[in-house]
TrEMBL record:
Extent of the signal sequence: none
Transmembrane segments annotated in the record for this chain: 12-30, 50-73, 79-100, 112-131
Keywords: Membrane, Transmembrane, Transmembrane helix
Protein name (database record): DoxX family membrane protein
Origin organism lineage: Bacteria, Bacillati, Actinomycetota, Actinomycetes, Micrococcales
Membrane topology: Multi-pass membrane protein
Keyword Repressor: no
Main localization (coarse): membrane
Protein species of origin: Subtercola lobariae
Cellular component annotations (GO), alphabetically ordered: membrane
Annotated localization: Membrane
Alphabetized PANTHER family for the sequence: DOXX FAMILY MEMBRANE PROTEIN, MEMBRANE PROTEIN-RELATED
UniProt KW Transmembrane helix keyword: yes
Length: 132
């Protein structure tokens, strides 16, 4: 593959992921979505005070928005891509918890194995954006 073609592919991945992460981050601030996402946090990870589930959802939404915006800025793109890869690892327990409670979370309860495979693919693509 030509280097210029690879650069274009990297850019397209970055821009598409930027849009997706910004939109998903904004969704964390929609009250109904925020409540559902807060319920997805496993009981063992729930805390009181500042680390209440709703605050964690707002924080992760802000992280997604910041990371998504970072993917649009060439100088920030590598660090944003790495930060989003770490983010995907950090939120995986909530996705796993939702997967084990399909009756409660419906369509958000993506079965664990496909979710894990998708997360690995997303992380790999983010690392391609970061490091080429």
């Amino acid at each position: 593959m030509e280097p210029a073609t690879f650069d274009v592919i990297q850019l397209v991945i970055a821009l598409v992921f930027g849009v997706v992460f910004v939109l998903m981050g904004i969704n964390h601030f929609v009250p109904a979505s925020r409540r559902t996402m807060a319920a997805m946090i496993p009981p063992s990870m729930r805390r009181t005070g500042l680390l209440r589930p709703v605050n964690l959802v707002l924080f992760t939404g802000a992280c997604e928005i910041a990371g998504g915006v970072g993917l649009f800025i060439p100088e920030l793109r590598p660090i944003a891509a790495v930060a989003l890869a770490v983010f995907l690892v950090a939120v995986f327990p909530a996705n796993a918890y939702a997967a084990s409670h399909k009756d409660r979370f419906g369509m958000l309860a993506v079965p664990l194995v496909p979710r894990a495979i998708a997360q690995v693919v997303l992380i790999a693509l983010l690392l391609v954006v970061a490091f080429g």
